[in-house]
Write a structure and sequence with these properties.
With 476 residues, the chain is an alpha/beta fold. The chain is built from 16 helices and 12 strands.
Length: 476
Amino acid sequence: MYKKRKTGWVEHFDFKLLDVFVLLSMFFVIIVKHSTFSLAQLISSAVVLVLFELLFDIMADINIDVMYRGVLKEFALSVINMGFGSGVVLLYMTYVAKWYTTTELAWYFFLSSAGLDYIAKIVYKELVKKGLSLYNNKRKMILIGTDDNIIDFVKHIERYSFGQIEITGIVLIESEKYKVGDTIMGYEFICKIDDLPDYLLKQWIDEVLMNLPSRRAPRDVIAKLTEMGITTHRIIDFSMQEDNNKMVEIFAGYTCLTESVRIMQSTSFFAKRAMDIAGGLVGSLITIVLTIFIGPLIFITDPGPIFFKQKRIGKGGRVFNMVKFRSMYKDAEARKAELMKHNTVSDGMMFKMDNDPRILGSGPDGTRKGIGWFIRKFSIDEFPQFFQVLMGDMSLVGTRPPTLDEWEKYGSSHRARMAIRPGITGMWQTSGRSDITDFEEVIRLDMEYIKNMDIWFDIKLIAKTVKDQFRGAGAK
């Protein structure tokens, strides 16, 4: 018999309760202790705090892989988590419960919650690991691997089992480096795979873990082990955890191995979209203000529309109109053909040009001056895209959306970058933008983003984008 581990919203529920306890404690110590309130205000605010913190923990999956992540990521997630929890309760207190507090107390509440949550998580994880290693009910397990992966396989199990697994032996498939009886990483090569059932008639174990990424699992051996009451685990692909592009799921009644360029949890999709909506709202408000100042300058330089629309390719090949502040003269698209000889992207997959004379305010030789160069240098022309983030055509962070003519030139390896929503910023934009003239490098950066896509990675790219924007770095 094998006990299935907890998954879904109940997984790591102890850490979810720890987050709630920290936030609630700081709420009483800092806000309640130093404020004037009624009992109704106190109760309603505390209930909102608990409910929304639990909801955020569950929907954003904030404690996924909590036992394995490093201290820096733990700190960042504590800041994000406590920032959401403290922000929600403070907004509720102010605008619903009409319970007002000072800005100073609000900051103390947030900072102390984030700091205490981080310390509590680090300490609690160490206690959990120590408790698991002392738990006197270890699972006896045999590892089955290959010459190529056995050393990393053993190291991985030793590192992540937290003392819960006792490796009682190793079996290698078609080994050319080792023979039965050899010791590998301190464990004995006990027998050949076909002899394993007979060996286990005399040596009892609980489970067998197979790591055979390029070989078919021996069905007859698995059947005999199951008949003997021994649980077997098969790692479908040992690189699966690294690539994040495979999963086993029930599809239309069939058990399927699903493969995609990237597979994310539904909660991660929710968190990314929630961040897009929040960022889209703020960016759209800033865009409205910028239009008041930027619009007249664009019109005075070249009378005509202050916004530029262009059809671009979005997720899954869907066409949408991307909107920017117009930074070029009205005839820019018509003049593109005559300037193609100056394209700095050698394979012609994109169009980039140094000292582009089509930009507003340029001299005949493309001298960089005027409103066009200014808004491009500091990426101000991109701000109207925040409205498209709100509508769902784009994301805050993603891949660069190609034009229709660029899309026509794409090969099969290029189209994968449009498996996600295009973004206002992304790996390409934060790695030099116009300094990169090799289209294949753009593809590589976009695919690197897709394979590593998560909220934490998005936040790092957004922070770098803001930094580059103020410096005007990489813009041409």
